[in-house]
User: What shape does this take?
Amino acid sequence: MDKVLYERDGRIGRIKLNRPEVMNAIDDELPGTLAAAVAEADSDAAVHVMVLSGNGPAFCAGYDLTHDAESIGPNQLVQEMPWDPIEDYRFMWANTQHFMSLWRAMKPVICKVHGFAVAGGSDIALCADLTIMGETAKIGYMPARVWGCPTTAMWVYRLGAEKAKRMLFTGDKISGREAEEMGLILKAVPDDQLDAEVEALAERLSEEVAHRSN
Assistant: This one.
């Protein structure tokens, strides 16, 4: 099964994380596959806006630590000792570049968050140009208390240093409504209105781009 789905729907490029059985947790393949989908949409002249979402009960629950822990032999997150920090850095640097493809894309990217966008999942969600959440969805970066700061620095970019530090020092998860009030995301809407809100914005942006190109 493809771990990231992509299709063009009129002027909208739809990218969907597709590991629903683990709440779209990030394994070794997902970041690169995500970046490939972004590149495909970005290179298609018929696509005017991208919508990023997650299949199943959540947008993204972060890195798939169970997958790595249960894998046989060393892998990107479970090395033989002594630990090689450069190998770890290269792995996380590559994933960060893949996530940042959303931010660097020439086409606007809307991220739709339901359920959870936590840990590495928040890195992905916050790399979009515009992030809209369901009111009860949760976002946070809990690993900051164990593994250090997020790799994309989008928390600081969106919130400023003081509010970002409050979130990362505590590892708190906050609701979509709190995220909107804090200025972390564009908007939070009732969960049952999330799809309609994102679709309306995507249609409007695709039309605005079309008008400018004519």
About this structure: The domain at 4-213 is CATH 3.90.226.10 (2-enoyl-CoA Hydratase; Chain A, domain 1). The mean pLDDT is 90. DSSP finds nine helices and nine strands in the chain. The CA atoms of residues 42 and 104 lie 10 Å apart.
